[in-house]
Specification:
The protein is an alpha+beta fold. It is 30% helix and 27% strand. It folds into two domains: 26 residues, no CATH class; 116 residues, Protein Transport Mog1p, Chain A (3-Layer(aba) Sandwich).
């Protein structure tokens, strides 16, 4: 049913498989200006967390997030916000560490990139960074800055 709704929203998605796939993943670039996570940072602001220049944000994670990718494809930053009930730290992930000083059930982990997250009020805020500057400290710093910007 959701696929039919997405297809009818954009007639070109019916004939362009790449557009259809992007719409189904929530990665429709035209929707980035409406995504609240895409409005939190500019690519330049995020480049310090990744260690390389990034392209403009695009909707990701089925519409619950925004991702900025390096043109080389070797680095990225992602911010995702979902209801708190979906908060999912991967305690078995490499280098998993609880962060008791950030929100509820805060964590940092190295699982296909450095991820950090916490429950803030009724939401789970999770960030992910990959690239030359990505490490536990940069993921935690991005999480803290994301929370600060979301609560302004």
């Amino acid at each position: 049913m959701a696929a039919m709704i997405v297809c009818h929203q954009d007639a070109t998605a019916q004939t362009d498989p790449e557009k259809l796939a992007a719409a189904l993943r929530g990665e429709d670039r035209s929707a980035a200006d409406k995504n609240p996570q895409c409005k939190l940072f500019t690519p330049g602001e995020l480049s310090k967390f990744v260690g390389m220049p990034l392209a403009p944000g695009r909707v990701a994670a089925m519409g619950s997030g925004c991702q900025w990718v390096a043109s080389s494809g070797e680095g990225s930053a992602l911010i995702q916000v979902v209801p708190a009930r979906y908060h999912e730290p991967h305690s078995g992930a490499p280098e998993f560490k609880k962060l008791s000083d950030i929100g509820t059930r805060g964590f940092v982990e190295n699982d296909m990139g450095w991820n950090a997250g916490a429950i803030i009020g009724s939401e789970s805020v999770v960030v992910s960074v990959t690239g030359p500057a990505a490490n536990a400290a940069t993921a935690i710093a991005l999480l803290k800055e994301t929370i600060t910007r979301k609560t302004k």
